[in-house]
Design brief:
Radius of gyration: 21 Å
Strand content: under 5%
Number of strands: 0
Structural class: mainly alpha
Number of helices: 17
Largest sheet: none
């Protein structure tokens, strides 16, 4: 929803997109480690079936939104070259450092290109990061941070977005942070800290969770003052893992924020979060076109009313797409693709 709101509000809320993307990449590294780490360690993890399953989950929706946006652009007389179409169809668009490639048609789909790279490197990256000695890990981390800082300070302003925000080679650092978060959570120190947090009173845990939310507010104001090279990714490298650690370790404590996140409506929203992300651009495009054709312009309506209408429509469309397309296509192709 941070990403969605950044696209509804515009450049004045770029924070939402950049924070949301970093959060998602870190979370992805943690979740994959949690789900498959043991199999990777034991040598039971098979990359090819894993890639097939992941593609089956998201590629049909990527293809649908891609084709719809192409049709909408063609209706306005805007067409794309064959290399751009092929790059996006094959999920290679984020490897080309130009927004003419990675923002073609359904712009938010660039993150799928990054995720495919993360999926491919996950087994080796996981083993490397979790088996490395702590002293060596600290040295490697310091070197990576120093090199990244040099890159940020040296890179031209017009290359910040394609290199630091989009490129899989730099965003893999967010993904690696998620793996390191898993390593910390399963370490002796992490387990002791998690145990201490879980023993606190409900009010104490609620206070800690609220503190994490306030931390995000503080980061928002720091973001506004930070150079674009830092705020597009690395600003969130400390914030996201700490935020996630607190909510991971307090997930089973019936504190106020936890109860809210476990409410059936919030869980329902979570179940369609991917569809919300990948379809919201299309929904906004069609909705705005309808409003314009009816002679109803956003400037003539209260801003909050328009925003609420857009959010409601995005959620409803996402639910329908999941039930009537994503789930049905997955069920139809699962036995064929994954056999």
């Amino acid at each position: 929803m941070l990403v969605v709101m950044s696209h509804i509000i515009g450049k004045s809320f770029d924070f939402g997109g950049e924070c949301g993307v970093s959060f998602f990449f870190v979370l992805s590294g943690f979740v994959l480690s949690y789900a498959y780490g043991e199999k990777v360690r034991d040598g039971w993890f098979q990359l090819k079936p894993f890639l097939k399953r992941q593609l089956l989950k998201f590629y049909p929706l990527h293809l649908l939104t891609f084709l719809i946006m192409l049709a909408l652009d063609a209706r306005l007389g805007h067409f794309y070259s064959i290399p751009k179409l092929v790059a996006n169809a094959l999920l290679l668009q984020s490897w080309v450092p130009s927004d003419d490639f990675y923002f073609v048609a359904n712009g938010p789909s660039w993150f799928l290109s990054d995720m495919m790279f993360f999926y491919v490197v996950f087994p080796r990256l996981f083993l490397w990061l979790v088996s490395m000695q702590a002293s060596r890990l600290r040295i490697v981390s310091a070197i990576v941070v120093a090199l990244y800082a040099c890159l940020v300070m040296a890179i031209p302003q017009d290359m910040v977005n394609p290199v630091l925000y989009i490129s899989p080679l730099t965003r893999v650092l967010d993904f690696a942070l998620g793996i390191l978060l898993f390593r910390f959570c399963t370490s002796a120190y992490g387990l002791r800290m998690a145990s201490w947090i879980s023993r606190q009173s409900k009010s104490g845990v609620t206070g800690l969770q609220v503190l994490m939310l306030l931390e995000m507010v503080v980061v928002f104001y720091i973001y506004e003052l930070s150079p674009s090279g830092f705020r597009c990714a690395s600003l969130f490298w400390v914030v996201s893992p700490v935020f996630l650690f607190v909510y991971i370790t307090t997930d089973k404590v019936t504190a106020l924020v936890t109860a809210f996140l476990h409410h059936p409506f919030m869980l329902w929203l979570g179940s369609i979060s991917f569809e919300i992300y990948l379809t919201h651009f299309v929904t906004l495009r069609i909705l705005n076109s309808i409003l314009n054709s009816l002679g109803v312009y956003s400037a003539e309506l209260p801003g909050m009313a328009v925003t609420c209408m857009e959010v409601v429509m995005i959620v409803l469309v996402s639910y329908v797409v999941k039930k009537c397309y994503v789930d049905k296509v997955y069920s139809a192709l699962e036995k064929v693709v994954l056999r």
